[in-house]
Amino acid sequence: MVGPANGGRIPRQVLSVVNGGQELGNRAGPGSVSGSDCGGFEFSREDVESLLNERIKTKAKDKFNFKEKCEVMTDYIRRLRNCIRWFQAREGDLLLQLEKHGKLLESAEKKCNDLEMLMSEKEEELNSIIMELRKNCIALQEKFAKEESDKLAAMESLAKEKDARMSAERSQKSILEELERAQRESSSANQKILSLNDMYKRLQEYNTSLQQYNSKLQSELNQTNEILKNAEKEKVAVLENLSSLRGHCTSLQDQLAATKASSNETTKLKEALASEVGCLRLDLQKVRDDRDRLFSQVQDLSAEVLKYKEWTGKSVAELGNLTTKSNVLEATCSSQSNQIKTLQEKLAAAEYKLEMSDVSAFEIRSGYEEQKRVNSDLQLRLAEAELKLIEGESLRKKLHNTILELKGNIRVFCRVRPLLFDDAAENEPKTVSFPTTTENIGRGVEVFQHGQKHSFMFDKVFVPESSQVEVFVEVSQLVQSAMDGYKVCIFAYGQTGSGKTHTMMGTPGSFDDKGLIPRSLEQIFESRQTLQNQGWKYEMQVSMLEIYNETIRDLLTINRPGSTESGTKQYAIKHDANGNTYVSDLTVVDVRSSREVSFLLNRAAQSRSVGKTQMNEQSSRSHFVFTLRITGVNESTEQQVQGVLNLIDLAGSERLSKSGSTGDRLKETQAINKSLSSLSDVIFALAKKEDHVPFRNSKLTYLLQPCLGGDSKTLMVVNVSPAPSSVNESLCSLRFAARVNACEIGTPRRQTSSVKQLDARFSYG
């Protein structure tokens, strides 16, 4: 085939035509080889073989016509040169292409090595992060154990402090009893003082009798004067003793005032003592008054004695009686002073005991305040440790989600429903339990079958006491990703009667028992209202369908599937190049509030296929798929996001031997089990990373293809029944969930674009 040097194509010329002797002259024209340039011709394999096998022919009549032979040979040699030059040019082109391919191969190998090094570095970084997280977790566990031990020690010290406080209270009670005894003794002393007053009165009466006898003692006035002088000296001594007692009483009053100021707790006791001391002072004042009165009487007596010096006729016997009576009076005064000293000593002892009780009470109070301060410090440290533990757990969850997103794994939550009254059986142990270790708490579940324990670990495990709010808190961040432009898929899996529909839809008419779908919609519309302040405008569209017996039904259409129009309509699943999934002729409704979506959900729930089996009174006989498409536009930043939220309630797997399905229910059970079996085949193929994944084996797997094999954030909630009769199905569900959790489907990708490139409204295919 012959072509020009500039790459244009011309009709092919075969060298055999040139070999003819008659056309040789025509080939020697402008179309022949010009000089050394052979780039204008191309030679095929047949041309080269014909050129090599060509024989030089001459006319038989003129055998010795060497000129003609020379021309033929020259033409042959020229064509051979052209062929050789063409081969040389082709060889040069091939060498250039080989060099170019070698360079491309080297660059590809270099890029591959760089990618391998980058992957190894990323793997090392992730391993180091995981090691650091493990170290932090171990450190937090050690700190928590230490805080627990400190807390126990603080509780023990608090118990000891309570015991010491009780002993102090008992000692205080004993001190109060002693003070009461001292009060009783002081009252007895008051009675003795009264008796002394009576004695003084009797002495006064005796002095009056002495006045009567003064007329008889005129003869011995000198002796009586000396006796009176001695009596006056004794009275002075008594007065001195009384003054010392009064000073001592004033000191006692000062001490009582000091003790009253130092101790608030014993104020009443001190006031009682002060009142008693006041009584003593009054008694002493009475004694002083009596003493003054006696002194005046003695003066009167001395005056009378002076008057009666002139009188005589006193007998010596009466004077002796007077001296004996005065001696008795001195003895009574000394005994009274001794009694006052003993009372003072008892009062000092009582004050000392009171001071000691004040000191012990102050020490106990200070120790209690110190222990209270230590307890408050320990509580603060415990609160800080709990806060750090919560922060570490949130950081662990965030890093765990990041690692899962990098790995592309499907996240799996496990929820165990409560044990119902019909599930309870006598003398049967529990088949489902939850580990309490720090590493497995909230993430592990254990199933017992025939005495053997089967342990499973998931991203999150909800106990039967977990509420709908607790479940949604763990899912809320994933729902928020749909507002950020990600494709999100959440589907519930489990056997019949395990609580899938309750988890996804909740209890109708109950505000606190709403499921994931209503709560997700409320969060999305609340976020929409919040993001409007940042310049975002969102448009949302809802569609709902069910897959019943491998047939797609539109749950929002006006006509039910039994009608003629809907029966003739065929719905086809389509996937575009961006990984988006559409169902042809499916009803799509624009929504502006969660109330509108709730109305559509109620309408779809009434249209969904539900039947009664032996395992469940209200058994879902189809796979329910809720799709919310979100389009957000921010004109200030010229950014647009397109998110999709798929919430799927799968029909429950069941065994025919337990469900007792017949007729239509039998067909439904077979279709459900077939689609779930196809889902299991897809999961196995993804886990083994096979080249072919059988997504097209069922409508369910083909609809979930972008979620299981694309760039979507996917969460599976496996629901488990704790009934002993369902232990086999629970084990199958948990094993399948563990395989799903190990699948890697790719890193999620956010769908964003510029407003100038895409329309502000999302269009459906």
UniProtKB/TrEMBL annotation:
ATP binds at G494, Q495, T496, G497, S498, G499, K500, T501. PROSITE patterns: KINESIN_MOTOR_1, KINESIN_MOTOR_2. One of its GO terms (biological process) is microtubule-based movement. GO terms for cellular component: microtubule. GO terms for molecular function: ATP binding; microtubule binding; microtubule motor activity. Pfam families: Kinesin (PF00225). Belongs to the TRAFAC class myosin-kinesin ATPase superfamily. Kinesin family. KIN-14 subfamily. This is Kinesin-like protein.
